[in-house]
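go over this chain:
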Amino acid sequence: MKLLSVVFLVGLSGTALAQQEAVEVGKAMAEQLKPYRECLKAEVAKAASKEQAQLIVQEACADLRLGIRSKLIATVHQILNPVPPSFNPDAAADGALKMTQVGAYYDYTGEVRAFHQRLKNQADERKQTRP
């Protein structure tokens, strides 16, 4: 029974370590994405329409995006040394860059703020109608 407890605790500590490493990677990636996010915000603000904003988000700041992509991958390798076989740093970097683009577009359109406001209004209505 003691052996089972020890194995369980070792498993939990390994999980906690993996979670801590994931948080570290996320924080480091978010920090490195700041210049790209600011560049996209500045460029997408020039858009005259949603369609133009989509094109700008996809094409703007390309040189910066390439530089940041390599930094993101290097950061993953630095924090997760060795990188687990189940984790793909290239895909993680590409996903982070894509989400930054999507975020810049939705910040421009205001659709996310409107969606959150609708959810908040619905929650408030439910609170008021409860007996």
Summary: DSSP finds five helices and no strands in the chain.
